[in-house]
Design brief:
2 strands; 149 residues; 6 helices
């Protein structure tokens, strides 16, 4: 009997999960080998990736140099600067229940837990701004009422 579409989709999902698990298991050995070869042969990023592609002799400014620094890292060599789509390693970790703050580059796990959430900061500042606006309107209205009396 032929398999149903749902059965095939379940098989695909299981195979993809198995493939990702195998990739993660092999990745550490691959990275270790590459690092060893880099050290042995003195390979630089220039050797691997060539020039920066810039035609002018200008150097990067402070803003762009800072934005190219890793903002998130997993401790096994995977990094992300925080721009563009999230890399697969980070999406997998977030799906597994980790928090984005846990991967902040250079932050200790305790600091990541106590760090205020940006969304919470925005919400709090919006509430303060809204309260100020309401208070300002009330002040203007009461001032207008007393002037009319």
């Amino acid at each position: 009997m032929a398999q149903t579409y749902a059965q095939i989709q379940n098989q695909i999902a299981k195979l993809q999960a198995d493939a990702e698990k195998a990739r993660r298991e092999e990745l550490g050995a691959v990275i270790a080998k590459v690092r060893q070869d880099i050290e042995i042969y003195g390979i630089t990023s220039q050797d691997l990736f060539g020039g920066s592609g810039r035609k002018s002799g200008k150097t990067k400014g402070k803003a762009s140099a800072k934005s190219d620094q890793a903002k998130y890292a997993d401790g096994t060599g995977n990094v992300w600067v925080g721009r563009g789509p999230r890399p697969q390693w980070l999406r997998d970790a977030l799906t597994a229940g980790k928090k984005l703050e846990e991967f902040l580059f250079g932050a200790s796990p305790a600091a990541a837990d106590s760090a205020p959430k940006p969304a919470a900061k925005k919400a709090a500042s919006k509430k303060v701004a809204a309260k100020k606006a309401v208070a300002k309107k009330a002040t203007k209205k009461s001032a207008g009422d007393s002037a009319a009396s």
